[in-house]
Amino acid sequence: MSFAQPTPHGYELEPELHRTLRGRPPAAVLNWLLDQLGATKIVEVEALPGGTSSAVHKVLLGSRNGTMLPVILRRYVLDWLAEEPWTPGNEAHVLGLLADSPVAAPRLLAADLDGAVSGAPTVVMSWLPGRVDWRPRDLESWLRRLAEALPTIHAVPVDGRLRGFAPYPPERPLPPSWSRHPDAWRRAVELFEGPQPDVPQVFLHRDYHPGNVLWSQDHVSGIVDWPSACVGAAEADVGHCRANLARQFDLDVADRFLGLWQTVSGTADYHPYWDLTDVISWTGSDVEPDPALDAFVAAAAGRL
C-alpha cells in the first residue's frame, strides 16, 4: 500500500492553500478507506465546510453487492496538531464512549491515529442525516430541543482517559480596545485566573452550539464534532452555547436557552463565570468591534 504525503496546512496560510483542505483526498487515503471498510469503490467525495484544523469529507462507498455506505473522513492538519497532539486520539476514544450511549453521535468506523498510512492522523466515522439550522421556524421549540440534548450528553459515563476541562486562554490583550465595557472584561480575566466554581463534573462536548447540531423535521438528528470532549462542569457547555446564541441572535435568546436548560436539567444556579471565561478567547480582531460579544460580557459581569 502506498502512503499519502503529509500536508502541513494551518491557520496562517493563504486562501489558496486553505482550499487544498477542500480538495479531493489523496488516492492513498481513499484506498486505505476502501480497505478498512471492505468496500470496492469510491462513488462520490464531497468536501464539507469546516475550519482549518482538519479536512473533512463525506465519502460514499460502494460494495460488490450494490450497497452504498456514506462515511465521514476527517484528516487532521499536522501543524495544528503541534499544539494539541492528543486531539485525534481523543476523538476516536470519545466516539467509542458514545457508541454505548443514547446520544445521536457518529460511530467510529476506522482510525489511523499516527498517520502512518494516510499521511496525517485520520478518523473515519458514520455519516449522520440532517443539516445545521441557524434559522428555525419555531425558535422556542428549537431552543428547547437544544437544551434537552445536553442532559443526555452529560450523562455519558466518563473514564480516566478524558482530559479535564479548562477555559481557553485569551489570544490577545484584554480588554479589547473597542470595548465599551472594559471593566467587565477585566473581571472576566480575573475569573479566568482564579478557580472554577465547585460543581459536579460530567462528560462534556466542549464545543456545543447550533453549528454542531444537525436537524431533521424539526428534531435533533445528530450532534457532531467531538474532538475536544472532556470532563468538566455541565455549565461549560451551556455557557459556550449561550455565547454563540447571543452573537447570532441576542441576549434574550441566550437567556431563554439558559432557562430551558435549567428546567430540563433541574439546575437552579448558574454562575456568570461560565459565560465570561468562555468568551475571553473569542476577541478576534483588536480593531473591529464586536458589539454582541461586548454586550454579552457586560451582562455576565453585571450578574456577579
Automatic annotation (TrEMBL):
Keywords assigned by UniProt, alphabetized: Kinase, Transferase
Domain Aminoglycoside phosphotransferase per the UniProt entry, residue ranges: 45-265
Record-linked SUPFAM superfamilies: Protein kinase-like (PK-like)
Molecular function terms, GO-annotated: kinase activity
Protein's recorded name: Aminoglycoside phosphotransferase (APT) family kinase protein
Species name: Microlunatus parietis
